[in-house]
UniProtKB/TrEMBL annotation:
EC number: 1.2.4.2
Chain ranges of the Transketolase-like pyrimidine-binding domain: 626-797
Lineage top rank: taxon: Eukaryota
Catalyzed reactions per annotation: N(6)-[(R)-lipoyl]-L-lysyl-[protein] + 2-oxoglutarate + H(+) = N(6)-[(R)-S(8)-succinyldihydrolipoyl]-L-lysyl-[protein] + CO2
UniProt-recorded name of the protein: 2-oxoglutarate dehydrogenase complex component E1
SMART domains in alphabetical order: Transket_pyr
InterPro entries for this protein: 2-oxogl_dehyd_N, 2oxoglutarate_DH_E1, DH_E1, KGD_C_sf, ODO-1/KGD_C, THDP-binding, Transketolase-like_Pyr-bd
Reported cofactor(s): thiamine diphosphate; Mg(2+)
Subcellular location: Mitochondrion; Nucleus
Major enzyme class: oxidoreductase
Keywords: Calcium, Glycolysis, Isopeptide bond, Magnesium, Metal-binding, Mitochondrion, Nucleus, Oxidoreductase, Thiamine pyrophosphate, Transit peptide, Ubl conjugation
GO cellular component, one term: mitochondrion
Amino acid sequence: MKLFAATVKWHGIKTLRKPDIARRAFFHGQRYVSSGTSEPFLSGSNSNYVEEMYYAWLENPQSVHKSWDLFFRNANAGQTYDPHLPDQLERKASFLQSHGLAQTPGKAEKLVEDHLIRGHHVAQLDPLGILDADLDSFVPSDLITTIDKLGFYGLHESDLDKVFQLPTTTFIGGNENSLSLREIIKRLENTYCQHIGLEFMFINDVEQCQWIRQKFETPGVMKFTNEEKRTLLARLVRSMRFEDFLARKWSSEKRFGLEGCEVMIPALKTIIDKSSEMGIEYVIMGMPHRGRLNVLANVIRKELEQIFCQFDPKLEAGSGDVKYHLGMYHERINRATNKKITLSLMANPSHLEAVDPVVQGKTKAEQFYRGDTAGKKVMSILLHGDAAFAGQGVVYETFHLSDLPSYTTNGTIHVVVNNQIGFTTDPRMARSSPYPTDVARVVNAPIFHVNADDPEAVMYVCSVAAEWRNTFNKDVVVDLVCYRRRGHNEMDEPMFTQPLMYKQIHKQVPVLKKYADKLIADGTVTLQEFEEEIAKYDRICEEAYTRSKDNKILHIKHWLDSPWPGFFNVDGEPKSMSCPPTGISEDLLTHIGNVASSVPVKDFKIHAGLSRILRARLEMTKNRVVDWALAEYMAFGSFLKEGIHVRLSGQDVERGTFSHRHHVLHDQEVDKRTCVPMNHLWEQQAPYTVCNSSLSEYGVLGFELGFAMASPNALVCWEAQFGDFHNTAQCIIDQFISSGQAKWVRHNGIVLLLPHGMEGMVRASDSDAHPQFPSKEDFFVVVLQLIILTPKSLLRHPEAKSSFDEMVSGTTFQRVIPENGLAAQAPHEVKRVIFCTGKVYYDLVKERKNQDLEKQVAITRLEQISPFPFDLLKEELDKYPGADLVWCQEEHKNSGYYDYVKPRFRTIVNHTRPIWYVGREPAAAAATGNKNTHLVSLRRFLDTAFNLEAFEGKTF
C-alpha cells in the first residue's frame, strides 16, 4: 500500500508529492486508496521509516506519537497538514484536559465508523421479530450493543460519562462538537441500529456518503407534523380497507393482496409527492402482481368500479390477461403539491422482473422527447419482490444500463416488498447473498432497509430516497422488510412450509391498528376521527361496487399504459390502414449516398480501411445501386428528413457485427472523438441515435420495447449480434411482443433485426392448422411490429444489390418478388415453382443456371412472411397451373418456415395441390459447425430442388 501524500514538512523530511486528492476510507474492513499521480512520496531510509510507522499506526494508532497520529488521520480524511500542528496539538491537549474532555478522538471515530459500516446487521428490521433480514444472527464483535464490548475499543464502563471530541465527519452531535461516550453510543444506535438499516459505505464518493449521513445522523431530522401523521394514517386506512373490501366481496378470488405490507401505498405516495415537489411531472412504474390492484386504486387512482368490474365472471369483453397483470395511464392533480402529474403503471406478465427494462426504456423515451436530459421531469419507480429481486437475472442486466449514456434514466427508485419468503421457499434456500438487495451494490446504489411496521420510518426513508435521486441522478433502493399475511395467493396454505413464521403472523397486530393506537395515545387523532376515516373509505368502495354491477363491459381505454392518441384516427374517423408508397426522389437518394460516403467533420482522421469502404459507397451511389448497408442508410436517412426519430440499439451496432455499417466514425488520432454522418444530412432533421449496448439481450430488448411504446412516430430498432442471440430475450418476445396486443391492447412499433443465414458456422414459428383466406380489407393492415431477418454473407454478395429504380418515388415495398426471367415468359411450360425466402435464393439461382433449367423452373421470393401475402401468392400460383409447388429453405425442417407456410399455401389452392418440402432434415442443433458437413447438406437439398422427377407418383 502506498503512503498517503500531503503537503507537509516533518522531522526534516520533505514530501515531493502534491496530489489533488489524498482520501482514505474504511469500507467493511477493507482499505481503498485514491490518490493522484506525481513524483515518489519519499525516498531512501526516511521513506522506509515513515512507511513502517504508517503500518504500525494502522494496527494501533496509539503506537505512534500523537502528532503523527493526527497527521495520518488528516491525510486519510483528505486534509492537508499544517506544519504548525505539533504546537497546536500540545495546546489543544492541555485545553481538553483542563476542560475534562477526553483526548481520544480515534476511539470515537472507530465507534462511528463501525456503526456506519455494520450497524444495519443489528438493526431491528423484521416486524415479526423472528428473522434476521441479512440471514445471519451473528452480531459483529466490534459493534457496541452491550457495555461489556467497550473493551474492544480500549474503553471501560468508567469512560461512559467522559466527554469525547466528535470526528468532524459525523453529524450526530448536531451543533455540538463533543458528547459523552454514553450519548455517542445512544445516538449511533438510534441512527443505525433501530428500524432503519443503512447500507451505503461501499459508495466510493465522499460527498454522497456525507449527504446520506447528514440526512440520518442529524438529531431531530425524523420528525413529522400532526398533519403529516394524519395524512399517513388516512393513506394506511385506504391501503388496508381496500384489501379488506376485496376479501369480503371476493373471498375465493386470487388478488395477490398487500396484507402485511400495507405501508407500501403511503410509501409510494410519499415518493411521488416529494418528487412532484421537486419538479417531476411524469412517473412511470413497474411492479409484480402483489399489491398491484391496491396501487391502481390508491396510487394511480384508477376508478374503483373498473377494478371491481374485473372480478365479474360475466364480463363480456376486456383484456386477455388477469386483472393483477394490467396497467394504466392517468393524468391528475397531485393533492400534496397541487401540481399536475402523469402516472403510468406498465402491464406485465407473470415473469416478475421482465417489466424492469421495459419501464426504463419508456422512461428514457419520455425524457428524450421532452428534452429532459437530466431526468428532472420524468422518472421511474420499480417495485420488486425479495425473491425475484435476488433471483432474476434481468434485474442485474437492467441495473447495468443505469449509467450508460444512451440508456440512463438519471436514477430509478427501487422499492422492494421484502416478504422474507418466496412462493414457499425460505430465503436461506433462495439466495446466497445476505440481503435480497445486494445486487444493487454493483452500481453503488445506497440501500435503505426499513421495518415496514414503522410507518414514519418508512415515510422518512422514502422522502430521502426521492431527494437522493433528484440530487445525484442515481439509483436508490428502499427495502421494506415486512411479511405476507396470507399465502402466495389467497387460496394457498402457507403453514405447510413456514409454520413458525405463520404462527407469529397470525398473532401479529396489523400496522394500521398499531399506528392508529399510537396517534390516538399521543392526541394526534381521536378514536372517533379514526373510525370516521374508515367508514368514509368503506362507503366509497361500496358505492363503486354498486356502479360496477351496471358496467358489464369493460372500457379498454382505462387499462392502456401507453396510449397513442390520434394515431389510429383523424378527426374522429379511422385512419386508412393501407400501406403508402415507400420510395423517395432520386435527388434524396443521391444526397444520402454522398453523405454516407463522406466524413462531414473537418480534420477528422479515419482508418485507411474505412476510407476504402466509403469510396466503394460513393461509387455505388454514382452507379445508382445499393447494397444492404447503403440501403439501410437510405431508409434511415429518409425518415430523418421527414422528422422521424430513428434509434438503433444492440451489441456493436455502431460499426455492425460484420463490419458493414460504420455509422459512427472514430478519429484515429484523437481518443474518443467520433462523428455520426447520419446526423449531418440536413440542417433541420430528426436526431439519429445509434448506440452500442451492454452485452445483454433480455434487458436491452426490453429497454427498446419500452422506448418504442412512447411514440408511434419513431423507428426504434434492436439488432441481435447474431440471429440466434434473441434466444435469451425470448421472454420479451413471447410475453410482450407476440401477445401484448391481445393481452393488454398494447401498441408498439419495435423492429427486430436478426442477422440470419447458415454459413457452416454454429448458430442457434408459429403455425395455424387451418388458416382462413383473408378478405380484401384484411390485406391492408398496419404492421406495428416487425422482425427482419437481416443478412450475413449477403452483406457483400455481388448479386445482393438493388437499383435506384426500385427505391425512387412511386415504388413501394415488395411483399413478394416474382420470377421475372425466362420462366415467367412461358409460364405454361414451367414444371416447377420454387418458393423461398432469404439467402437460399442466391444458391438456387446459381444452381438453376448450372443445370440449365431457367425455362423450366421459376423461383419466387417471399419478402414478407407474416402477415402472409395470400393475395400476391395466389397470382403466382394461378400463373403456373401445371407446375409442382416446392417450398425450399436452408434451415432444418423443424426450425424454418415450412410448418407455417404449408397450410397457408394449401388454403390458397383450396387443398387441390401439394406444396413439397425441400431442405435439410429435422435436427436438434440449429446448424453444424463443420464447413464440409454444411456443404454436403447444401448439395443434397439443391439436387432435390432441381430433380424434376423427385415428386412424381408421390401423394400428399
